[in-house]
Design brief:
single chain, alpha/beta, Rossmann fold, five-stranded parallel beta sheet, P-loop_NTPase
Length: 323
């Protein structure tokens, strides 16, 4: 099993196998799982199993259907994604998906339609899909992948059986990375990446821990000086994009905890000296105001990619000496 799926997916997979064996699969499954859990691998293996000509609870890996999946040319497998990264899934794409759902299988088996990320569907697209989910075609399996349930229409959620990935323990993540990547990771990196194993792996493989340390260092120097040299902080944030802003949001949250006398459950549990120093040098009112302002800024930048990020980030940093 370890070669097919990630170890933290085994429990869900065993439950899905029981549904397959007992012919109890719902027509639509909603996987409400963050990207860093490896949800694609789970759903791909699910597709491999349902489309395999042996029609068992595991794909054989040798039949013609399995060969077509491996080559990326299976006529009954359709992944629906935004045509442009970061954009929406259009109503035209969902109408095409509905058309595929009504077609006959090329191998007298299931037809698989996977929508990822489902929260990227426009309202019109979601409503078009809803009509098909309300009267599902025979032998057509829908799988919706979403990071959050809250961004999907309640009517869509009600037509799907929802599955969520339980929180993955630090011990499981640590052991997996040690065995598969020979990586030794610390607890802070796991918390910083929200207990998402693939995000933790990327954090080390892409040397993001170096960028994280640089950002904290540049930020500390910037906000504690009367001159407030923003250049290094802004340059680092532009490179890291929202991830860097998320790290700063976590840092400000930890500083607020320290100012309130809370000395446990910090995300930056290995940066106590930095947190202590900033908690003493910056007023609690300013930290709170800047924390709220930063989260508002993150939302604005995510909703409106065309905004002048450099200008907005510089203005936010100058507020630390503007009190």
């Amino acid at each position: 099993m370890a070669t097919k799926l990630y170890p933290w997916q085994e429990d869900i997979w065993h439950q899905w196998q029981q549904l397959i064996a007992n012919d109890r699969l719902p027509h639509a499954i909603l996987c409400a799982m963050p990207e860093g859990t490896g949800r694609d691998k789970l759903v791909q293996y699910f597709s491999d199993t349902l489309l395999c000509l042996t029609q068992g609870t595991e794909p054989c890996g040798f039949c013609h259907s399995c060969d077509l999946i491996q080559s990326g040319n299976h006529p009954d497998l359709h992944w629906i994604k935004p045509e442009v990264e970061g954009k929406s899934i259009s109503v035209e794409q969902i109408r095409q998906c509905n058309s595929w759902a009504l077609e006959s299988s090329q191998f007298n088996a299931k037809r698989m339609i996977i929508i990822e990320p489902a929260e990227k569907m426009t309202e019109s697209a979601a409503n078009a899909l809803l009509k098909t989910l309300e009267a599902p075609p025979k032998n057509c399996q829908f799988v919706l992948l979403a990071s959050s349930l809250h961004h999907l229409l309640p009517t869509i959620r009600s037509r799907c059986q929802t599955w969520q990935q339980p929180v993955i323990s630090a011990e499981v993540i640590t052991q997996w990375l040690l065995e598969t990547e020979e990586l030794t990771v610390n607890t802070q990196s796991i918390i910083l990446n929200r207990y998402l194993p693939l995000a933790v792996k990327s954090f080390y493989k892409d040397k993001k821990q170096v960028s994280h340390q640089q950002l904290l260092s540049h930020f500390s120097v910037c906000v504690q000086s009367s001159f407030c040299n923003t250049a290094d902080v802004v340059k680092t944030l532009l490179k890291l994009e929202d991830e860097g802003l998320c790290w700063l949001s976590y840092l400000l949250s930890d500083i607020q905890k320290r100012q309130l006398g809370i000395v446990t459950d910090w995300i930056h549990c290995d940066e106590k000296e930095t947190v202590e120093r900033l908690a003493k040098s910056i007023s609690s009112n300013l930290i709170y105001k800047q924390y709220l302002s930063l989260n508002t800024l993150r939302q604005q930048l995510n909703d409106h990619p065309g905004l002048n990020k450099e200008l907005l980030l510089t203005q936010w940093l100058f507020e630390f000496i503007g009190e």
